């Protein structure tokens, strides 16, 4: 006895199943690629923020020290350093140093680059080198002899990350000694 089926059997054929799997695989490849690309973009953006933050903090601190100094000297060598001459006056609450007084004690400070970090004498001005590295710190004396103004141009190159996510930028700033204008 044979039964004739008037209606088609419910179910999925092998060809339809393979087609569905191929479409699903294509969607998963596109989604995975998008997630990987977003991760790379996030890593680059994080390194950009790190580099900018370290550079800004380091430059602000160096500029502050230069502006409060009475004299500066760029010391050639490898690495190059900046020698700052400041005076510790005995009057508390002074906003600017009094470089003309004879009642002040002379203090020498050195700003230099050591192992990818900026140092002011024995204090670090930049964070640990495991995340962000300062590749170059250079100073240029741009003092104007005719007007008795003293100024220093600062060049700073900062790098963060590695491989394709590595970010490196150069920063420039100029600081004028407060008592020289």
Write the layout of secondary structure elements.
Layout: H1 14-68, E1 71-75, E2 81-88, E3 105-114, E4 117-120, E5 123-124, E6 132-141, E7 151-160, E8 167-176
Antiparallel strand pairs: 1-2, 2-3, 3-4, 4-5, 6-7, 7-8
Q: What does this protein look like?
A:
The protein is α+β, with helices and mostly antiparallel strands. The protein has one domain (14-180). It has one helix at residues 14-68, and strands at 71-75, 81-88, 105-114, 117-120, 123-124, 132-141, 151-160, 167-176. It has a five-stranded antiparallel beta sheet with strand order 1-2-3-4-5, with helices on one face. The longest helix has 55 residues, at 14-68.
What letter string, H or E per element, gives the SSE order?
A: HEEEEEEEE
Q: Compute the separation of the termini in Å.
A: 114 Å
Q: What is the topology, as strand order, of the major beta sheet? A: 1-2-3-4-5
Q: Structural class of the helix and strand makeup? A: alpha+beta
The main β sheet shows up as: 5 strands, antiparallel
Q: Unreliable runs, pLDDT <50, ≥5 residues?
A: none
Oligomer: single chain
How helix-rich are the residues, as a percent range? 25-40%
Briefly summarize what is shown.
This protein is an alpha+beta fold.
């Amino acid at each position: 006895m044979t039964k004739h089926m008037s209606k088609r059997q419910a179910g999925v054929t092998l060809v339809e199943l393979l087609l569905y799997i191929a479409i699903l695989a294509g969607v998963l490849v596109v989604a995975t690629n998008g997630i990987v690309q977003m991760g790379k973009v996030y890593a680059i953006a994080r390194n950009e923020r790190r580099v900018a933050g370290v550079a800004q903090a380091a430059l602000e601190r160096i500029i502050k020290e230069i502006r409060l100094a009475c004299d500066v000297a760029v010391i050639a060598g490898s690495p190059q350093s900046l020698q700052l001459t400041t005076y510790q006056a005995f009057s508390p609450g002074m906003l600017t140093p009094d470089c003309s007084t004879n009642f002040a004690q002379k203090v020498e400070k050195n700003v230099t680059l050591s192992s990818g970090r900026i140092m002011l004498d024995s204090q670090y001005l930049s964070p640990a080198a495991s995340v962000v590295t300062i590749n170059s710190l250079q100073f240029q004396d741009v003092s104007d002899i005719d007007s008795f103004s003293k100024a220093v141009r600062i060049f700073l190159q900062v790098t963060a990350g590695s491989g394709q996510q590595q970010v490196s930028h150069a920063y420039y700033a100029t600081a004028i000694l407060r008592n020289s204008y």
